């Protein structure tokens, strides 16, 4: 098999990278000059870093990485958002995709990232590189006539999409309630609020306690989807859902996403509500000790953690972990681990869904010492994982 070389994108690669992306993401049609992909590539400091794969000096693959973060309560980890993975059809199955994925793991680990994340076309493929599904993104679809009458106690209004500063505190408060939420850059806010088609930003409360981003459908009696909804209080959730009930009044149904600990399912679940688990993100831990140090514990303890990682050998072995009010220390040790996980399931335990306790109950985390396992659970408690961004 010819060697595959993966390297950063260079200006002379533009025609080749657009060709490989067009075959995967644009029905093999050329990209328009005003398409977001072309415009982004023309920027001197693009928000997405691009890489290409060559075989026999021919460009045969490409992918991009968006610098992101992932919350874990009050902790924050740098996450490389892998996107635009594409391989020329005639060489698929020949190792090009694997070479790109392994390059990304090592490269982003070396420059200081704790995590990588992506949305997979086929999750089983990316599990081979240490990724695993974390959390359960719930898609709710409810007939408009069956939507409950929500109690609106907060005043609603419409903001200009440029007014990000008004909703940023609400979004960041929402993010600290979950794991895996990306604390967005300005460019990432622009991706959500300023696409070609106009979007309306509804908010409730002053300061804002909830908001929704809506691309209104012009026809009646069709499904109205909500692009994004976030809240910092139950009062905010109830009030913004009252607004969305009004948005859906001349539509057949309303559909939106919530995390697995959905307020709607907890309070309003009714026969006829369609519930789907859809577009669950996958995460991969690039640097085990650095990821642990990024946590912000609320208790104290210590344990020895065993990790198996076939692709990033620096993560393999036993790690002594001590935590308390001052933070987390994670150092390599020769001691026998109290808890052992593969790198895939460690991502789930690190973020909290499924939790370490659940993984131990399923036999996916091996317990060698019960007291150490209890200490590990205190550092890694259950927490819903939810990435608001699609990329």
Large-scale geometry: globular
- Gyration radius (Cα, Å) is 22 Å
Poorly predicted spans: none
Strand content: 25-35%
- Estimate percent helicity: 25-40%
- The counted number of beta strands is 19
Cα(first) to Cα(last) distance is 32 Å
Biggest β-sheet description: 7 strands, mixed
Summing up helix and strand content along with how strands pair, one would put the structural category as alpha+beta
Query: pLDDT average, as an integer?
Result: 94
Strand adjacency order, main sheet: 1-2-3-4-5-14-6
**Tally the helices: what do you get?**
12
Write the SSE topology.
Elements lengths: L3 E5 L5 H12 L10 H7 L6 E7 L2 E15 L2 E13 L8 H15 L4 E4 L4 H5 L4 E2 L4 E6 L12 E4 L4 H14 L8 H8 L6 E5 L5 E5 L8 E9 L2 H14 L5 E6 L4 H5 L6 E4 L4 E4 L2 H6 L7 E8 L8 E8 L2 E7 L5 E4 H9 L4 H7 L3 E2 L2 H10 L12
Parallel strand pairs: 4-5, 11-12, 15-18
Antiparallel strand pairs: 1-2, 2-3, 3-4, 5-14, 6-14, 7-12, 7-13, 8-9, 9-10, 10-11, 15-16, 16-17, 18-19
């Amino acid at each position: 098999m010819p060697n595959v070389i993966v390297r950063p994108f260079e200006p002379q690669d533009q025609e080749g990278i657009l060709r490989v992306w067009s075959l995967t993401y644009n029905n093999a049609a050329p990209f328009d000059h005003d398409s977001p992909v072309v415009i982004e590539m023309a920027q001197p400091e693009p928000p997405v870093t691009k890489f290409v794969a060559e075989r026999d000096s021919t460009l045969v693959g490409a992918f991009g990485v968006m610098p992101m973060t992932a919350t874990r309560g009050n902790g924050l980890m740098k996450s490389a958002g892998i996107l635009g993975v594409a391989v020329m059809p005639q060489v698929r199955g020949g190792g090009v995709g694997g070479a790109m994925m392994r390059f990304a793991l090592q490269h982003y680990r070396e420059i200081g990232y704790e995590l990588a994340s992506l949305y997979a076309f086929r999750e089983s493929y990316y599990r081979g590189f240490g990724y695993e599904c974390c959390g359960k993104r719930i898609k709710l679809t409810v007939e408009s006539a069956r939507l409950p009458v929500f109690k609106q106690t907060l005043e609603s209004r419409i903001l200009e999409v440029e007014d990000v500063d008004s909703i940023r505190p609400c979004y960041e408060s929402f993010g600290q309630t979950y794991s895996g939420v990306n604390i967005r850059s300005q460019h990432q806010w622009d991706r959500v609020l300023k696409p070609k088609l106009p979007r309306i930003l509804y908010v409730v409360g002053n300061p804002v306690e909830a908001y929704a981003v809506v691309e209104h459908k012009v026809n009646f009696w069709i499904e109205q989807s909500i692009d994004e909804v976030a809240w910092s209080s139950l009062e905010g959730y109830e009030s913004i859902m009252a607004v969305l009930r009004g948005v859906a009044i001349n539509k057949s149904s309303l559909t939106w996403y919530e995390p697995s600990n959905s307020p709607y399912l907890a309070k309003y679940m009714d026969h006829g509500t369609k519930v789907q688990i859809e577009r669950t993100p996958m995460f991969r831990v690039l640097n085990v000790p650095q990821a642990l140090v990024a946590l912000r514990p609320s208790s104290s303890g210590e344990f020895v953690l065993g990790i198996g990682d076939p692709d990033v050998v620096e993560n393999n072995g036993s790690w002594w972990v001590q935590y308390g009010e001052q933070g987390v220390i994670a150092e390599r040790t020769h001691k026998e681990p109290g808890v052992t996980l593969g790198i895939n399931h460690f991502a789930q335990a690190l973020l909290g869904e499924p939790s370490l306790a659940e993984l131990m109950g399923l036999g996916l985390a091996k317990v060698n010492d019960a007291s150490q396992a209890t200490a590990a659970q205190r550092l890694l408690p259950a927490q819903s994982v939810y990435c608001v961004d699609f990329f």
